[in-house]
Structure formats: C-alpha cells, structure tokens
Amino acid sequence: MTTARETIDALIARSNELGADPANTNYAGGNTSAKGSATDPVTGEETELLWVKGSGGDLGTLEEKGLAVLRLDRVRALKEVYPGVDREDEMVAAFDYCLHGKGGAAPSIDTAMHALVDAAHVDHLHPDAGIALATAADGERLTRECFGETVVWVPWRRPGFQLGLDISAIKEENPAAIGCILGGHGITAWGETSEQAQENSLRIIREATEFLERTGSSEPFGAHDAARAALPEAERRAKASALFPLVRGLASTDAPMVGHWTDTEAVHEFLASEKLAPLAELGTSCPDHFLRTKVKPLVLDLPSDASLEDSVARLKELHEAYRADYTAYYERHAEADSPRSAAPIRRSC
Q: Mean of the pLDDT values across residues 161-167?
C-alpha cells in the first residue's frame, strides 16, 4: 500500500517533470493531483484525501506547500448541494470546508475536475499541440481523427464544478479513454498510478504534435513577404531600441505593463508572412480559466526599413484604433457567463 508520503513525493516529481518542458504546459499553467489515504489524527481512521496543485504557482517548481489537501468524501458530497450552473461559483468557497489539516495552498477553480474524475492521478495541462486542437473551429472532428476513442472531446465550459461533473461523466462513458481535449482550453489526462498519468499526458501531447506535423501546412502563416522581412540584426536591434520607450509608454496607457523584447526565428517567420494581418487580428484564445482575453498584437504595418519618424507616427495612430476596438470587444462580451469577459486592456507590439 502506498503511503501518503510516497503519494505526495510522486506527485511533486511528476509535476516538476511535466512543468519543466514548455511543450507540456505554459508557465504557471495547468495543475496535477493525486488521491490517496492518510490517518485522520482525530478519529485514527484512514481517510481518503486529494492532493492537488492549488491556486498560483508553477508546476515546474511546485513544492509540497503549493498543494491543497482536501478530504475526498467532503468534496464529492458537494454534488448533493450543488445549486446548478447559475451558482457554481459558490462551490469554490465551499472547498474551504473540505480542507484537511492546516497550511497548504488555497484550492483552485480546477479542484472539482481532479476530485470528481474517477482516477487516482489526474493531470491538466496547456500544451501548444493540445491547444491547437482545442481551439480549432473543427476541434471535435480533429480530436476524433487524431486519437480515435482514446481521447475524447469535451465542449468548452467555464472551468468550475460543472466542468468537473462533465469530465467525470464522459470518462465513465468512455472507459478506454486516457484523457480528453477540453474545447478552447487544454488537455486533461488520468491514470491509476502517477507514472501512468504522466505517460498518458505525454502520449496525448506527442500524438497531437505528430498529427499536426503530418496533416498541417508546411507554411502555416502563408508565403514569405519580402517587404516585411527582418532587417540585419544590428539595424533591427537599433531600431527596436529607439522604438521601445514609445511602445512601452503606449502599452501602459490604461494599466502599467512590463515590456519584453522577443527576437526569435519563429517571430521573424510570423512577422514576414502574408497571413500576418488576419492572424494577428484573431488574437489569442486564452486557454485559461474564466477569461478568453482576446489579447492580440498591435501590428506596425510598415515595411521593415520604414523611417523611425514614420514608425512613431503610425504607432500612435494604430494605438488609438486598437484601444477603441479592444474596449468595444469587452463591452460586447461583458455578460458573466460569456467565454469572453471584461479584463484590463492588454497589448503587445
């Protein structure tokens, strides 16, 4: 029989290994869990517990203090008092009444997913390959084409108690499945041992990656546009250094923002592609909790060798249009149950 100490140690090791590779999940994204038992110091009886990564923190650097520890019987009993989707936010506060012992992290919104799924070990991750399927317009079809019956599709729903119930029911209906693609969000995998859960997580990511490489376009951003090709490195960095104070100031118009200079081959490929404008306009589909934040880059639509003066003037003009568009977007999606809800204006250039 596995001891509580062994269960915790295996969970931390698995979390750190998964979180160490950005191909598996984004920084501070995702959560992992393990179910096991420990002696209740009050009754002296063995009690089923759930150890799950709490709110905040990063899987790659997760420590035991970053785990929330809950009594599994009490979390599962919440199904009997669940008031329904319209009031599911109340269930997050109820997790505090399910905690076991002192200390530990606060339970996250994803706790229900881990507790209600009938598997000893559960991983929820945000890998690029999984997100590519999850956010595709025909993601359900692509998931079936990629995995067959091994991985099932779960339609998009706000993370919370109902999503935990949904995934639990889908797992029961698909006993051969090793995990699921969460529409618009990411992936969840499970296993009866820590090793099996990790293997299943990595298998989903690997097979999704291979499927995309096999069926995707060799030029996903479109053909190369010579007018937007990157300047020689010295000129590029000199121009970026001159523009960066202005960009930082514009980005902080509505809320303070931290600037970051990214200069990679992938970025250059995207910026010099014929599909830059329409793809940038789509923005991101944030595979996270209550928000799909519609963060999109502000594209300076001038040739790479445009003068500094022209670039400054065009940036100011574009920024005003960007702010108006962004504000209107959130006014259209301000309702509480929208997959897109209000957030501070964020921008990148």
A: 96
